[in-house]
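Now read this:
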Amino acid sequence: MKTNIQEGIILIPDFSGFTEFVFNTKLYTGEYIVRQLLSTLIDVNDQYFEISEIEGDAILFYRYDENPSYQSISKMLWKMRSAFNRKIEELSKSLSTTIDLALKFIVHYGSFSQYNIGNFRKLYGKTIVEAHQLLKNGLAEQPSYALFSNSFLENSKNKESDFNKDPRRLPEVGVIHYFENLN
């Protein structure tokens, strides 16, 4: 059996506050807002990452990359979050409503494979499961953050950065950056 196992980055942007939003927003309005916000993230991505899946309020992005760059990914996340916040402001004004959503990111790295079912491409592997588990971490003190896994940090070509001394380091998980603190 031939498999397509490669090393790469998994990026999952996910909305914080989504469940409450769905329960407290009219169906048509909520669907319109979520569609606009997800489209904004996809547009800002500018085809840097491939899309594997879109599920509810999250996008499973991936990129095969043997030398991931912490700086490049950080810049991408900052652009995505800024565009997301601008779109929330725009939609809040145009719809005369409050949109209480924030954006969190999981950045992970490892081996995974890909297979096709009909017109769909699916990712498979331990790395994919780990990235999804990181979404449910319960570690964040603020709703808007990026969690860079140990695996991503260890494989980043920016190894000169000393993440072990970072005060937001979670030894078993990685480093969490709150957007209010990112430059």
